Amino acid sequence: MTSNWALPSIVEQYSQPGAENVHVSWINFDNFNNLKTNNGKSVKTSRDLIHIARDPRHDIVEKTYFIKCVGFNFVNLPLSPSGIEIKLTSNRFGRITDETVLLTLNDETIGNNHASLDLSPIKTYGNNNDMWNTTLTNSDFQNSSFGVILRFQSHPNWPHKCSMLLDAIEIRIH
User: Structure pTM?
Assistant: First the structure.
């Protein structure tokens, strides 16, 4: 059995520790159930890839804030989980790639970072046999603090300051 695709109930953005001392909230929505705005446009990541790094002299790639998505309400969880799959639907404008794709539980990142340079508009991370180097259980998946932390950056071969448009972030458990 595989769970249904689930959407987060809480989406937040925050800066890199040691960078700006601010919390940046999403504007115009509180979760991905209705991510597109009333005029049909996707929601942009905050600050258009402008990020103040802890050490700007050594961090020349423009990055977004971290995006934390938690509070997934899974339906039909398998008895013995064997894999975690995340599907991200977005518009990367052919130039925005991943920097961080990590699971989170209790405000701690866990497992392997599945970030890649692939620029596909619909990306799937993990599969039915990939537990992301974790030993998560159904009680962990049902914990409201379980989710994913994302961060995007300009492609290292084509630097720029464009925004990334997010349409959906979904997780299912195999």
Answer: 0.80
